[in-house]
Write a structure and sequence with these properties.
NADH Oxidase, alpha+beta, disordered N terminus, disordered C terminus, 240 residues, elongated
Length: 240
Amino acid sequence: MIEKAQAVELIDNIPLKMDIAKIMVRLDIHGGNKLDETSVRELADTASKIARPRALYRESFITGKTGNSIKIDGIEFVSHLLLINLDRADRIFPYIATCGKELDSLQIPGADDSQLYCLKLIKEMALAAAVSRLQDYLSCKYALDFIFIIDPGEMQAWPSDHRKLLFSLLGNLEKLVGVSLTEDNSLMPAYSRTGIFYHANIEFESCQLCSKEPCMMRRAPYNPELAKGNLRQATRICGH
């Protein structure tokens, strides 16, 4: 039986708490930091006054599966990775989250490298707040004891061009949340992300396959063995 898809729901008025200590650590790791804590707080305060992180999701359903593809509300995604991760899922939640175009447009006249990197970290933090708020909201509303997330573009197995398919599920995102998709499938504002939240008994976080520097969004440590191994063999049944 194919369930009727629900309308999108916007999550707004998301509180943004600036973790100054975490920003200072990241600045020091980045190297060449010229900012003291007072300067970082001033920039964080300026950003907080205009920031409007938000998220939007839709309750969707798996409507078909084949050997190498899966249909979500009738839209086909050709991805073996999705087949593995959504194998035991029925209801899923395509989503978009963003730091917000208000914060993205913030300019710092004459900014040096340290200030620009600090602003980048603040945008990451705003995006992380939007994703976390949505995850908590979904867990509470749908009584889910644990919920996973997977995004196109984070790994080769689910390419970034599938963002177009997610946009088609979620509607006019430029109008709804101020996020657009470029010709090369990049998200604008850059500190945005789109993907799928899902509840299933196969535990997997795409961060396990990412070896890039730590970010505000990391949900699991990099696992080099998992990254080079067979995904189906490497994922484990969750013990919840």
